Amino acid sequence: MDKATLASSSILGILEATHLTANQYNWLGTIFYLGYLAFQFPQNLALQRFPVGKWMSLNIFIWAIALCGNAACKNFAGLFAVRLVLGICEGSITAGFMIVSSMFYTRREYTARVGYWYLMDGIGQIIIGFISFGALHVHTTGLEPWQWLMIITGTITLITALSFFFLFPDSPTNAWFLTEDERAKAVRRIKENQTGVENKHFKKEQSVPFAFRLHRYEFVSRMIEAFMDPKTWLFALYAAFVNVPATVVNQLQIIIVSFGFSPIQTTLLGCVYGVIGNVSIFTGVTIASRFPNSIAWVGIAYFIPGLLGVFLVNFLPWHDRVGLLFSVWITITTGTSFVLSLTWMSQTTAGHTKKVITNATMLSAYCIGNAAGPFMWRAKYKPRNHVPWIVAGVCYLTCIVLLFSIRTLLARENKQRDAEPPDESFDDVHVVRIDEDGKRTEVKVSKEFLDLTDRQNRDFRYVL
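That's the Major facilitator superfamily domain-containing protein sequence above. Prediction below.
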């Protein structure tokens, strides 16, 4: 919802109040993702070093202050600064959510769970549509409707930050809502993932058997492995291409107004975009969860409505405003494919550190796509916007090819591993445990808790 405040403000008076040109408005969309990009790796390293929930709480708190600060901005420079801060803080959220989700849920559950929390993106679109509708009816001498929108959403975010600090768990091992026995069971139940549990710098006397010290050499070697893995770059390319056309979200209200709808009507029509997005994500993750190894095919299928929308918005008569509106709405289905790609990438990457690096690489590419996208919505292409819509169509076709390529690569790797003899390299690993009395005992550690990468563990099979 916070990310949608800029788009909603575009019809609430921010353009006139801060004297923004079309190019400056596009830059406000871009700077958010440049901040996100610049701090993506530092944020992911911080998620590796500090408790995940607490680190995200700090970022959400700073985010809330910056969002409220939007209301005090009088010009492009002020908005540019606060949007940069928002992007920096955003860098911790998706990566943090993915890390925690993979520690609580099995690979069979993971796709649906990520889809469920991603449904809130659509819910946010719906809620902010109604808040914008209400803000248009607020008439005060000191604040304009767009400023009220920033203050209201900023206050909600501040409450969220406090809730995160006290309620959001860092991992199953310190989840306040689980008993000691349930915590142990929560760790054991994700054994089938063979991806390990959160791995930071633990003390030598650490008594939790699956927690190991990650030495600097190991960190560097796993970082190199992540960068040398071809699927890392295929997922990154996909994230970049799929998010170039996703920037239509920042232009949505402006586009709907150009079809001939009033600002009041546009605030409510924007809610429909969120509803369609939610239905799309829910059905997509449900299908992918119920049919094994179907993620790539489901992702490809959800690009078809997007391609149809691009075709219609380019060729329908300009006076058919309802048809044009529906054409734009159905392009949101492509967002389902991106959600599925996030879950797919996480399920095909094992080893906490490698997963952090891979997450950061993919989300950096996500930022590049979102940063580049706003500049295709230039004033000279309005009102039909043929050029940006054609670019969107090309991006969708490219994404289909990339999804197919990733599936082919992983299927070939699975077939190769099936032909290999059983891997016994890590079947006899012991660690020394020191109890409170100083007594040293050796404990055998199951392979599933060794935090091995997907390349180290030849028993690991890739989800397709």
